[in-house]
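Whether sequence alone determines local backbone shape is best considered at the level of individual chains. In the encoding step, the backbone of a single protein was reduced to a row of integers, each denoting a local shape. For completeness, the protein is quoted in full, as a sequence line and a line of structure tokens.
***
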Amino acid sequence: MVAWWNSGSATYTLHTSGSTGAPKELVLQRSHIEASARATIAFFGLSEGQRSPLLLSAKRVGGFMMVVRALVAGLKLDILPVERRPATRPGLRYDFVALVPEQAAALAADPKFNPKDFRCTLLGGADVRPELEEALSKWPRPVYHGYGMTETLSHVALRKLGHGRTYQGLPGFFLRKRARLWWSTILRAEFEDWLQPTRPTSCHSVNSSGSVDLTEPL
């Protein structure tokens, strides 16, 4: 993947997980990939020299985008085994961590894990069960849940656990036309409209019922 990045190639091929239908191959534009990475970097205030672990497979969008964010922001990325209970190192602090809810649940249940070691945690790939959200809301550092899929290059909106069910759209993107998008029915044309850069201060609310209803920023 790093070789692809350094080559300057305009496209990259990823496979969907199949969570919203039959798995399929997607050819993604480099400009969209970079735009998604920069939006996340801006939202979380990531900067060069900060440290993150890679705990997700880079063959899927979650791990893939972690690598891209590290390359764009200049993060120090520790590549660790992909396991249900992440192989964290006690006392080693991470600035930004991406997990699936199952991994977060395993950490929350482990008395040896110190949640202070994660400055900020991002969950994706599945819903967060109420009991898990309650546990993670007690962590001393913020935990976010992302709304998105492979077609949207990971999350396009985020919500902070323990602070309601409203998702906030990432800064810098808007839909050029009013649309209602569902997890399982997002269309390529709508995706093209989604990834349009605009003012970095623009943001939108996303209803937790499973749809988004966005308009161009004022």
Summary: Residues 30-44 form the longest helix (15 residues). The two ends are 38 Å apart (CA to CA). Residues 174-218 have pLDDT under 50 and may be disordered. Helices lie at 2-7, 30-44, 61-73, 101-108, 130-136, 188-194.
